[in-house]
Each structure stands twice: as structure tokens, then as C-alpha cells.
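can u do me a favor
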């Protein structure tokens, strides 16, 4: 589940996000393409969770290039590529019964239906996802999940798996999905053969299954005794006789596919019992699992819930809990964020936790250090439960030296400026925003990053060097590099040359014309990233309109809450920020903005500001808003002279009276549905 990290600034988050992105992409390649992961599944989940948490608090980090928007890894060149008819996406993870309940409560709120859905529960197999495509009953091709959209053609290898029927008594085009896995017995047998042959043994059944399925010689795959559990079937022609997930499982079994143990859960107690029973049975199962999967049983509700990002709203994976470890605090260092926030970090004696060596833990702030009485030399208990950098739970044993808890610094470790503590905030800050290297370098690095201006050749290292040399002191100086170059030619700088210097200047020149969403993202407004920038561009269409936007204007945008609206208003009320924009616009031209024209502009809702009031019998409020915005409408929470339509449900209250007084068009839920379905 995504969590808010209340005590981290954007600069620290951005640096960590970039590191996470690189780590996840590397681990995805190792896991999906090479079947040689370096970390445990749990450890990988924590990387994902931390990245999701960072993007929840700082949406500007979430771009189309983010690992949170992808599944798996790009396919290698060893196999032909197969584009999936429907994306093979992944599930959101839950790590407690409370998180499972919260997940289904969100689905309840989205749909406005009873909270106790019927839930189909089964085991989460530690294997490799595969799609098998049949045409008129004959197996035509099979593919791995790949990146979720494009997989690898492993048809001949899949044909060797005994549990996969070559023929089905079905007409038309049918797709079956499931998990290729290796049983514990087959895994032990394979490793014995590997040992006798003097070859490297596999670390676990999942690695063995992945490596076996991706063999270039199908005979090798056949010798590995792979198995397959199915969990999904879809027809691209005549509908199948299924209305629920349990119907799907029964049909798959009737067609000859093997299934994991599954159970229909009708209450939260049923779900909790299934989790407990699964954990108890785990050691004795003939196959490896790493949790359980829970799906809303109704296929109609699954369709209505749809997806958000890379995960469905109707299904969730319960993962087995994390482990604790003990280690020693070797040192405590401090980081300076882009906003000047000072964050202490514990340097640890490396310790193996969940299959990975960890050597750092966040201490959040110095109040946390004081509260837990953490000192250098202490033995501490650490936990990874959603944070990629572990957190210290408690001090297990004080150091023999009797060292006192680390005292907060009085000056910035980057620039030496005296630190300040603002009212009502627990953190220390360096106020030297523009001359503090750590702050300036990190913002400029963000400004030129792929998520913003996307200027290749300017990473944080190059920006830091240019800052030290006086070539750039702020983001606008990027566009002055070329005109100032004769004073200190970049081509003469060590590690550069005429070709590389011209390449950089050309890359900068290409960004002198920029789209409005990218320009907004580059401003670094707290909470405003790729997705929100697009929303703001769609709503205001011009930077001057955005500068003059009021809070009611902003909160009328679906997906933009009051806190984010406050941040945007505060940003544009700051004279320093306005001067920065004015200076930047001397060097950058924003392209005229054109809205997405793929929508049906003839729809009565397109371009209209609408307000929902009362209880909608058929729709949850979130689903209703999504349907409205999908037709190009703007959803507001309050009625004003700018409101075009009011959608009225049961017990509408004062909003209906106000709409009638203002002569605003009133529409029932049924009328609304007639325009969106």
C-alpha cells in the first residue's frame, strides 16, 4: 500500500527516486530476462513500495518512465516479441489484514456497493507469468509477461509443459493466463542433476522455472519438469459462460488446467482465516508461494473497477511479513535537501535482511534520535516494512562507550550557514537557498532531468561541477551557458571537447521551445509532477492563466485536492518564484497548448464544469467523477456562477436549491449515465 512519508523533502525524495528507478530497472532485467535475481522477492517489494510512497507524496516524480507505470522488464533479443492483446499488469501489495480491508474499502467507495464483496482467494505462486493463446481450440502461441505490454514468444517451450492442454473444446480466440512454476520436488531433482554434472545449481524454484522456460532449446525445457497453474481465461469472440472468478476457476479446471487451492470468502474474517491457513500450510505445499491473492468475485464489478496505473482496483496480493535484524550504528551523517531540510541518516554495520545486505537507515529528524536515544556504537533493531532504507525500531543494547545521542548540527554541512527551525516544524533547515550548493545543485538537476526539461548530458555530477566553476548558479543559467562560453570555453574543460560541448549546447537549444505541461513540471511546485502538470495544462491552457488561478479554480479539477491547491497558490504568490518564471520566459518559449482532441467533443459534458450532489444509487462518487472527466468535463466540489451542470442523486440538500436559484442545468443520475455509457 502507498504511504505518505511526512518528514522528507522533495530534493531528498528526488535523489532517492532516481536511485530506486535505476535499482528497479536493473533488478527487473535480472529477474525477468536473466532469471538471476540478486535480492529476495520481499526486498524487491520494498523497493517498489518505497518508490510508490515517494510518488504518492511527490506526484511530480511519477512519469511515464517510472517503474510504477511499468510491469516486468523490456524483453531481450533472444526471443521474438509478442504484443499482448490485453496488458498483463501486476497487483498492488498488502502486508497486513488491515491493509487488505483498506484495499476493498476503497473499491466499495469507488463503486458505492456493499463493502463485504464476495472475494475469490487463492495462493500467490512464486513463478513466471505466461499467456497462452488458442484459436478455434488449437494452441497458437504463448508468451511471457515481459514488460506487461510486450512479452517473449516461448510457444515451443510451453508446448513441453505437461499440464497445458494443446487443444481446447472452444471456438474462436481464447486466452488463458497463469503461472509457470517448478515444484519443490522437480527443483530438488534438477539441482541434483546440476551437481552431478558439475554445473551451477539454481538458487530457488522461481529462478529455475524462469531459466527453464526461456531456454532456446525446447528439449532442455522439457527435461526440467515445469508445471502450470491457470487463473484467467478470456474470449475475444463469443462470451464464455462465466460471471464470477470462481466460475472462471471451475471452467479452467473443466478444460484440463491445474489450479491452486482457492476459496470463496464472504467476510473479512474469511479473508483473515485464509491468510492464516495459507501461512501455516506454506512449508508443506508442494510448490513455493509468497502470499495469497484476493479478487473481487464478480466479473462485472471487476470490469467497472478497472485499473489505476499498473494495478487493478479489484485484486490485491497479500505478502508474507518482513523480518527484523540487529546491527550496530557506525556513524550518523546528515543530508541537505533541495528545500534546505536537514535529514539524519544512520550508517550501519552491513547486515543481511530479507536476502539483501543493508548498510543505512533513515533517522527522519533529530527529534526521532532524541526520542529513541540512538547513539553511535549502539546495537539497534531494524525493520523493512515499506521503506527501502530500513527504519530503526529501537535500541537493543547501548554502546559500552556510553556515547550520548547524536546532537543536531548548528550549521549547514554543505555551506556552513547557521541552521534555523521554523515555527510548528520539527525539522532544521538551511536558509541559504540560492548559495547553498546542495540545494541549488539538486534543484538544477531536477530542472534538467527527464521528467522536466530533459536535457541529456547534464546529470547531478556535471551540474555540481558547473556550479563550482561559476558557469551556472541557478536554473536560468542553463540557457546562458552558450553565450557565456567564450569567457571559459567548455570545450577546453577536462573530459569535454568541441563535439561534446556543441552536443550539450544543441540539446539546450532544443529545449528553448517547450510544452506547457513540461514547463509546469520544471517549476518544481511541491506535489506537481507529470500527471498533475497535464491536469493543470488541460484546465488553464496558458501559464498566465495558471499564475492567476484561485483555489476554487484549482480544487475544481478532479484529482487535485485542497492541499495541493494550497501549494500551487503559495508558489504563485511568492514574488521570487514569479521573478524566476519571468526570467525563464526570456529564454524559453512555451508552445501554444492544444487539448487532447481524442475525446468526443460533441458530448454534452465536454468542457463543462459539473457538480455532484446527493447519494448516487448506482455509482460511487469516485467512479462518477472518473466517468465525467473521461468525457472532458471538469468536476467541482462547490456550485458557483461557473457551474454548468449539477448531477443530482438522493437527498441532494442545499446544492440543488442553489442550482435552481442560479438557473443551472440539473441532471439525474440516469441522464448522466446516458451520456457516459
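np, heres the sequence
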Amino acid at each position: 500500500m502507498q504511504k505518505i512519508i511526512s518528514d522528507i523533502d522533495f530534493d531528498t525524495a528526488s535523489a532517492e527516486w532516481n536511485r530506486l528507478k535505476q535499482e528497479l530497472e536493473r533488478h527487473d532485467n535480472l529477474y525477468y530476462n536473466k532469471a538471476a535475481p540478486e535480492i529476495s522477492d520481499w526486498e524487491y517489494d520494498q523497493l517498489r513500495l518505497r518508490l510508490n510512497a515517494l510518488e504518492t507524496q511527490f506526484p511530480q516524480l511519477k512519469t511515464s518512465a517510472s517503474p510504477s507505470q511499468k510491469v516486468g522488464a523490456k524483453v531481450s533479443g533472444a526471443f521474438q516479441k509478442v504484443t499482448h492483446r490485453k496488458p498483463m499488469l501486476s497487483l498492488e501489495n498488502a502486508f497486513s489484514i488491515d491493509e487488505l480491508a483498506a484495499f476493498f474499502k476503497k473499491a466499495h467507495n469507488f463503486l458505492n456497493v456493499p463493502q463485504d464483496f464476495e472475494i475469490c482467494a487463492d495462493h500467490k505462486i512464486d513463478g513466471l507469468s505466461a499467456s497462452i493463446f488458442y484459436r478455434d481450440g488449437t494452441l497458437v502461441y504463448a508468451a511471457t509477461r515481459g514488460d506487461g505490454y510486450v512479452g517473449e514468444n516461448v510457444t515451443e517451450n510451453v508446448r513441453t509443459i505437461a499440464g497445458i492442454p494443446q487443444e481446447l473444446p472452444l471456438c474462436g480466440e481464447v486466452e488463458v493466463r497463469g503461472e509457470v512454476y517448478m515444484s519443490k520436488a522437480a527443483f530438488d531433482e534438477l539441482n541434483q542433476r546440476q551437481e552431478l554434472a558439475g554445473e551451477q545449481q539454481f538458487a530457488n524454484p522461481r529462478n529455475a522455472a524462469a531459466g527453464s522456460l526461456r531456454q532456446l532449446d525446447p528439449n532442455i525445457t522439457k527435461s526440467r519438469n515445469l508445471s502450470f497453474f491457470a487463473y484467467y481465461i478470456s474470449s475475444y469472440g463469443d462470451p464464455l459462460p462465466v460471471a464470477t472468478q470462481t466460475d472462471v476457476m471451475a471452467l479452467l479446471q473443466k478444460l484440463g488446467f491445474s489450479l491452486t487451492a482457492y476459496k470463496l470468502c464472504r467476510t473479512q474474517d474469511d479473508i483473515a482465516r485464509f491468510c492464516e491457513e495459507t501461512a501455516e500450510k506454506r512449508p508443506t505445499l508442494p510448490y513455493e508461494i509468497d502470499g495469497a491473492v484476493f479478487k473481487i468475485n464478480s466479473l462485472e464489478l471487476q470490469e467497472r473497477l478497472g485499473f489505476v496505473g499498473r494495478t487493478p482496483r479489484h485484486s490485491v496480493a497479500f505478502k508474507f511479513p518482513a523480518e527484523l535484524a540487529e546491527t550496530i550504528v557506525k556513524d550518523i551523517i546528515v543530508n541537505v535537501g533541495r528545500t534546505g531540510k536537514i535529514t539524519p541518516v544512520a550508517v550501519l554495520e552491513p547486515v543481511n535482511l530479507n536476502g539483501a545486505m543493508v548498510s543505512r537507515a533513515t533517522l527522519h529528524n533529530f527529534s526521532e534520535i532524541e526520542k529513541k536515544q540512538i547513539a553511535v556504537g549502539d546495537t539497534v533493531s531494524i525493520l523493512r516494512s515499506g521503506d527501502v532504507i530500513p527504519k530503526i525500531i529501537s535500541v537493543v543494547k547501548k554502546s559500552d562507550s556510553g556515547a550520548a545521542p547524536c546532537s543536531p548540527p548548528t550549521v549547514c554541512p554543505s555551506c556552513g550557514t547557521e541552521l534555523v527551525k521554523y515555527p510548528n516544524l520539527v525539522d532544521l533547515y538551511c536558509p541559504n537557498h540560492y548559495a547553498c550548493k546542495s540545494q541549488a545543485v539538486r534543484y538544477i538537476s531536477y530542472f534538467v532531468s527527464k521528467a522536466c526539461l530533459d536535457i541529456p548530458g547534464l546529470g547531478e555530477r556535471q551540474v555540481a561541477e558547473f556550479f563550482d566553476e561559476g558557469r551556472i548558479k541557478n536554473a536560468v543559467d542553463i540557457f546562458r551557458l552558450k553565450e557565456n562560453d567564450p569567457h571559459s570555453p567548455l570545450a577546453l574543460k577536462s573530459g569535454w571537447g568541441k563535439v561534446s560541448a556543441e552536443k550539450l549546447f544543441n540539446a539546450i537549444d532544443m529545449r528553448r521551445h517547450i510544452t506547457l505541461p513540461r514547463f509546469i513540471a520544471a517549476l518544481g511546485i511541491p506535489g506537481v509532477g507529470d500527471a498533475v502538470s497535464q491536469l493543470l495544462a488541460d484546465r488553464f491552457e496558458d501559464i498566465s492563466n495558471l499564475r492567476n488561478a484561485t483555489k476554487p479554480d484549482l480544487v475544481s479539477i478532479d484529482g487535485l485536492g485542497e492541499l495541493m491547491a494550497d501549494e500551487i497558490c503559495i508558489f504563485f504568490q511568492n514574488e521570487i518564484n514569479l521573478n524566476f518564471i519571468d526570467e525563464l520566459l526570456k529564454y524559453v518559449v512555451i508552445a501554444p497548448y492544444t487539448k487532447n482532441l481524442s475525446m468526443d467533443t460533441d458530448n454534452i459534458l465536454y468542457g463543462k464544469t459539473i457538480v455532484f450532489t446527493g447519494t448516487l444509487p448506482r455509482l460511487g462518487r469516485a467512479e462518477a467523477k472518473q466517468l465525467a472527466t473521461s468525457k472532458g468535463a471538469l468536476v467541482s466540489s462547490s456550485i458557483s456562477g461557473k457551474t454548468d451542470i449539477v448531477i443530482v442523486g438522493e437527498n441532494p440538500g442545499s446544492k440543488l436549491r442553489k442550482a435552481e436559484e442560479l438557473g443551472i442545468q440539473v441532471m439525474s443520475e440516469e441522464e448522466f449515465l446516458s451520456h457516459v455509457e
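The chain has 24 helices and 24 strands. hope that helps!!
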